[in-house]
Amino acid sequence: MKKLIIAIDGPAGAGKSTVAQILARHLHYNYIDTGAMYRGIAWKTIKSDVLNDALAIGNIAQDINIRLHYVDGKTTVFVDGCDVTAEIRTPEVSRVVSEIAQIKSVRDAMLKLQREMAGCGGVVMDGRDIGTHVLPNADVKIFLTASIKERAERRWRELTEKGFKVNLEELEQEIMARDKNDSEREFAPLIQASDAVLIDTTTLSIQEAVAAITKLCEERKGLV
After folding, report:
1. Residue set of the binding site
2. Start and end of every Cytidylate kinase domain (predicted)?
3. pLDDT digits (tens, 9 = 90+) for 61-76
């Protein structure tokens, strides 16, 4: 039976990465975290001190060596051979990644790499423009969302557990700003694909969200 290409899009904090990883493990598919790829570029941009230089950031995206190593439900992110899995999840990176992801040369570089990664199928890929731009012919398209309040609380718990001191109200404002940036950017904005299934996780557990998508995948397998 054909292995599916599954695209999961949605705003920051909707649970895409967690749901996608569990789904990939359940289906024995590869998981591709495109958000981690953009975070890798953001991390290197900060380290290179070129945050206000779009040309330099584009050059970083063209030259960077990003590798995602997915084993046993865990993704390790390597940038130029260095394990940056923890470093790319800091508030500092989160604050700048959306603006960096708006740069067309950055998205062009990642588009080519992401399509190569999807290859012959058997992948779950999540991001902002997977079903609309990166993999428009994906077999299953999901748009995962949740209320801003719920997304901010999830991010607050995640960061607090990692030892970061963050303000919940400030996180809500940052998420609102990121939603605006992602949805209004000129190139490949965050929108729900016309053939994507909307799943609101505000009141759903991770297990319930995974179960709903798994059901859709099983139904789709009989049609492709």
Report:
1. 10-18
2. 6-217
3. 999 999 998 887 788 9
